[in-house]
Each structure stands twice: as structure tokens, then as C-alpha cells.
Specification:
Elements: H1 31-39, H2 46-56, H3 59-70, E1 74-78, E2 84-89, H4 92-103, H5 118-129, H6 137-150, H7 154-164, E3 184-187, E4 203-206, E5 212-218, E6 222-223, E7 229-236, E8 239-246, E9 258-262, E10 273-286, H8 292-328, E11 330-331, E12 334-335, H9 340-370, H10 375-406, H11 418-430, H12 435-448, H13 450-461, H14 468-482, H15 491-510, H16 513-524, H17 541-548
Parallel strand pairs: 3-7
Antiparallel strand pairs: 1-2, 4-5, 5-10, 6-10, 7-8, 8-10, 9-10, 11-12
Helix pairs in contact: 1-9, 2-5, 3-4, 5-8, 5-9, 6-7, 6-8, 8-9, 8-10, 8-11, 9-10, 9-15, 9-17, 10-11, 10-12, 10-13, 10-15, 12-13, 12-15, 13-15, 14-15, 15-16
């Protein structure tokens, strides 16, 4: 007689050939990142970046990211008594993520640090801490970017800047001056115009008190509505102007900030994006009337850099996940990572990731030096940030999709985390100006500030003679700039070539020969297909992969 097993004793199969959990791992175990940190002036912080990388890759922090996205923010327009409160409730994991980011100086802390490389250190920190969750990077980015705009109004900066640069995260709506640290949000776009902010209809009316106005209108995308203060664009009598709007007024009363709804977004689900309504909302003028766009231009440079950084972070995170999976998963008699075509895919992704990380840190270095008065770096930053924002964020969605595919069906389920990263990727191309906006901004920079083009070619000249394919691409770029018959129609092709020659020049100068050679052969020399995994047979896949992928083989 066949024995009957109790249900708990039944087993239809054993679980085999599955990769173990990636965490714990070191998110800073990235040669391109650490080399760029040292090269761009932030080497003194390497121990801190390594510590933060281990924390970011730890099981606890990875769980924070998962929980913050699984338990999305909830809008509470009224309290139990019927009073309007317009608050957003977040899961405790969100607060842990954001609290750590602020404490580690990833918000506005660099503005209080006079040492060279302070902004590079922050960017490197974002490249590793972003392995946890992308959503909470929104309020830290806006807080970082708010400081230079606020400095256009010194009396306001004197009050708010010391609290914005603080490393203390103190959630909850209270009088700003009574808190130990503040976060800033932004309300720029409206439904009728989007990036065309000059079409804004929110009206700003001056009061009897100098510099104080009241706002009336509606904003279409205002992220992190639980921030303490917001920079807002509105139409004053003198034209489009920038204003500071606190959630809580100095007398302790709530400013009118009616949250109509939270956006139901494709990704970035841990972060609340809202539509606030202003109705006699008290605001303080930042910069001159009619100079709203000019006032926020430095803010735009900062947030665009963060878009590049976040895209590079997503690339690196998903590459690490793909590499880990393929090191432990077998198919057709061999580990996936040992199979030639998979190695080609991973190596191609590794090239893209290193190019994105290297460019990100170069842009951060330019920002740091420009903010310290280097005119050449300021000109380079002006054009290169827009170029990098266009290209790196455009590469993100295709990259994350390919990395997800390395996991096969295992990557298509939510538990893997890969769908979350895939949904996040398109945001970085849209936020702070879509691809077209950034491409056209490059044309404007070339036309209105010729020194920006000169600075770009001075940077490219540093690699002249090191690779014939790079030199030929630079000549093509010069020819294209001389023959701009229909510049707007061809803007994307122009900016794409700029981005590729810039990335190529950086890799030729700073990366191992195997990396630079494969990049130039494919992205500049045309020996490449139309998807990742089409590197030529001459590419040194082993060297590229050994450099790019952290060793997680001990997990199995």
C-alpha cells in the first residue's frame, strides 16, 4: 500500500537553479564611480561613499525601498473633524529613506560646504543611495536646487537657507523657523502649458507689505506636497515671477494649499505628485518681478544634473541585478554569464552604464567648479548638462528593459524589483524638460552663448589623437554645426552626436583600453547593431565584465 502523506509533507518539486537574493551587496562597488569621484575632486569622501554603498545594498535598506513603493502615499484632505488639512501620509520606510538621504548630505548640504568637490560628493552619494528607491530623490533634488534660486532674494535666503542645508530630516507641517531642517518643493508647470511656463495663468497680486503677494491658480505637477516650502511661478503685474510659498505661515496658520488629487503615475510611486490649488495663498517674491525664468535657471541646471544621475543610477542598479542573476542561473548546460551571447549583452550594457556614470561625475565636477567661479567650466556645464540630460535619460528605458530581459520571466514579476525600475526610467527624460526641450536648449546655448560650444570642443580636444574613430566623429560634429540648414528638425541628431563624442572622449581619457575601444568601435565607429548585445567580435568582453560586475558568486 502506498503511504498517504499529510499535506505539509507533500512536495511536488525541489526549488533549484534560482539566484539567491542579491542583498546584501555593496552599491559603491563600481570602479567607474570611485575613479570619477577621485578625479573630479571628491576623493576625500571615498570612505563615506563606500559606507553608504554598503548601507544602500543592505537587506534592510532594500526592503525600505520595496515597502515605500508597495505602500504608496495617501492624500488626506480633511481631518476627522472636517477641517481642511491637505496632508499626505507616507509609509515609515519612506521616512527612513528620506531621513538617511538628508543625513548623508544628499539634499542641500553641499551649499554649506566650502571645500572643492562638495557637489561631486553629493552626486556620488546619489549614485549609490539611489539603489534603494528613486522616488525620495525628488524632494532631495528640489531642496538642493532651491538654494541658488532663493539666493536671488538675500533676506529670504538668510531665513531659510540654514534650514534647507541642514542634515536633519524633520517631517510634519510646522512653522518653518521652528524646525531644525526643511525640504523644498516646486510648482512650475500648469495644465495648459507644461514646459512652456510662460503661458502660466496663476496670478500673483501684491499686498500692502513689500515683497508679499497672494496667489490664485492651479498647478499641474507639484511633487512632494509635504515639503515645507515651495518655489512657484506666477504672473505678477510685471510678468512671470518666482515666489516662495510656505505650507505654514509665520503665525502658525496654514497657508492655502489645497491638494486636489495625487497623480496616478506610471512610476515614481513612492513619491507623491500633486495638483495644488492656490486661493489667496501668501507668497514672497524671489528675484525681480518679470524675471521668473531667469531666477530659476540655476535651479534647472541642478535638477537636470540629478536627472542624469538618477538615470545612471538605474542603469547601474539593473546591470548589477542582471549580472547577479546570470552568475547563478544555468540554461542549456552552462551558467548564463558563461554563454557568449549573454556575455555580449551584459558587456554592452556595462559600456553604456560606465559611459553614463563617467559623464554624470564630469558634469558634477563642472558644476562644482562653475559655482566656484570657473568661467570655462560654467560654459561647459551650460551646454554639456543639457546634452547629458537629453542622451542619458533617453538611454535609460531601453537599458532597463534589456537588463530586465536578462532575468527572463523572473524579471517580469514585481518581486524581482525590475518592473519598478523599468517604470521609473521614462520619468527622467520627461522631468525638467523632455527630450525636445533639452535638444532645443542646446541650440539656444550655441546661438546665444558661443562660448559654450567653444568649451565643449576644448573638452573634446583633450582626447585628440587617442582614437581615430573619436577624432573622425568630432570632425563630423564640426561639419554638422557648420551646416545647420534646418537646425530644429535635426536637433536630436546633433545632440546625440555631441553626447556620444563627449562620452567617448571621457572614456578614451579615463577608462581602460578595452572599455574605450569597444565604446568607440560601436557608438562612434558604427560597428554595432540596433540593440544591446551586438558588440563586435573584437570587443574584450572579459575585461569589460570583470571591471563592471561586482563578484556575487559566493551567494550560491
Amino acid at each position: 500500500m502506498v503511504p498517504i502523506l499529510a499535506p505539509e509533507q507533500s512536495a511536488t518539486h525541489d526549488v533549484t537553479n534560482q539566484a539567491p537574493a542579491l542583498a546584501p551587496y555593496d552599491a559603491s562597488d563600481d570602479a567607474a564611480l570611485l575613479e570619477g569621484l577621485r578625479r573630479e575632486g571628491g576623493g576625500r569622501a571615498e570612505d563615506d561613499i563606500r559606507r553608504l554603498g554598503r548601507l544602500a545594498g543592505g537587506a534592510e535598506a532594500q526592503e525600505w525601498g520595496e515597502q515605500a513603493n508597495r505602500h504608496e502615499p495617501e492624500l488626506r484632505t480633511h481631518d476627522r473633524f472636517g477641517n481642511r488639512v491637505d496632508e499626505v501620509a507616507f509609509h515609515p520606510s519612506w521616512h527612513r529613506l528620506l531621513g538617511t538621504a538628508v543625513a548623508e548630505g544628499l539634499a542641500a548640504a553641499p551649499w554649506a560646504d566650502d571645500r572643492p568637490g562638495a557637489h561631486v560628493v553629493r552626486t556620488a552619494g546619489g549614485l549609490v543611495w539611489g539603489h534603494t528607491d528613486a522616488g525620495h530623490g525628488c524632494p532631495t533634488s528640489m531642496t538642493y536646487a532651491a538654494v541658488p534660486a532663493l539666493r536671488k532674494q538675500p533676506e529670504l535666503a538668510a531665513v531659510y537657507e540654514p534650514l534647507l542645508v541642514s542634515r536633519v530630516y524633520e517631517p510634519g507641517l510646522r512653522v518653518p523657523s521652528g524646525k531644525r531642517g526643511l525640504l523644498a518643493g516646486m510648482g512650475m508647470t500648469e495644465k495648459q502649458g507644461g514646459s512652456d511656463v510662460r503661458t502660466n495663468t496663476t496670478a500673483a497680486s501684491p499686498t500692502a507689505e513689500p515683497g508679499v503677494y497672494t496667489l490664485r491658480g492651479h498647478k499641474w505637477f507639484t511633487s512632494a506636497p509635504m515639503c515645507d516650502v515651495f518655489l512657484v511661478l506666477a504672473q505678477a503685474p510685471g510678468g512671470l515671477s518666482c515666489f516662495l510659498v510656505p505650507r505654514i505661515l509665520p503665525d502658525g496658520s496654514r497657508n492655502t494649499f489645497r491638494i486636489q488629487r495625487l497623480k496616478d503615475k506610471l512610476g515614481n510611486r513612492s513619491n507623491a505628485s500633486s495638483e495644488p490649488e492656490f486661493d489667496h495663498t501668501v507668497a514672497w517674491l524671489v528675484g525681480p518681478e518679470g524675471q521668473g525664468v531667469k531666477t530659476i535657471i540655476e535651479m534647472v541646471n541642478c535638477t537636470r544634473l540629478d536627472c542624469v544621475m538618477s538615470s545612471a543610477t538605474l542603469m547601474r542598479k539593473t546591470l548589477v541585478e542582471a549580472g547577479h542573476h546570470t552568475r547563478h542561473r544555468s540554461a542549456f548546460g552552462a551558467l548564463l554569464i558563461d554563454q557568449p551571447l549573454m556575455r555580449n549583452v551584459l558587456a554592452d550594457l556595462a559600456l553604456e552604464s560606465e559611459a553614463a556614470t563617467t559623464l554624470t561625475l564630469r558634469l558634477a565636477g563642472a558644476a562644482d567648479r562653475a559655482l566656484r567661479g570657473d568661467a570655462q567650466e560654467a560654459a561647459f556645464r551650460r551646454i554639456a548638462t543639457a546634452v547629458g540630460k537629453y542622451w542619458v535619460t533617453k538611454r535609460g528605458p531601453a537599458f532597463t528593459a534589456e537588463a530586465l530581459e536578462c532575468l527572463g520571466g523572473n524579471g517580469y514579476v514585481e518581486e524581482s524589483g525590475m518592473p519598478r525600475h523599468y517604470r521609473e526610467a521614462p520619468l527622467l527624460s520627461i522631468w525638467e524638460g523632455s527630450g525636445n526641450v533639452n535638444a532645443l536648449d542646446v541650440l539656444r546655448a550655441l546661438g546665444r552663448a558661443p562660448e559654450t560650444g567653444e568649451a565643449l570642443f576644448a573638452e573634446l580636444a583633450l582626447a585628440h589623437g587617442a582614437d581615430a574613430r573619436l577624432d573622425a566623429a568630432v570632425l563630423r560634429l564640426k561639419d554638422r554645426l557648420r551646416d545647420l540648414r534646418d537646425p530644429e528638425t535635426g536637433a536630436r541628431r546633433l545632440v546625440e552626436l555631441m553626447a556620444l563624442v563627449l562620452q567617448g572622449s571621457l572614456l578614451v581619457r579615463h577608462a581602460p583600453r578595452a572599455v574605450a575601444d569597444a565604446f568607440c568601435a560601436t557608438r562612434l565607429g558604427g560597428d554595432w547593431g540596433y540593440s544591446f548585445g551586438t558588440l563586435p567580435g573584437s570587443a574584450d568582453l572579459t575585461t569589460i565584465l570583470d571591471r563592471a560586475l561586482p563578484d556575487t558568486t559566493a551567494r550560491g
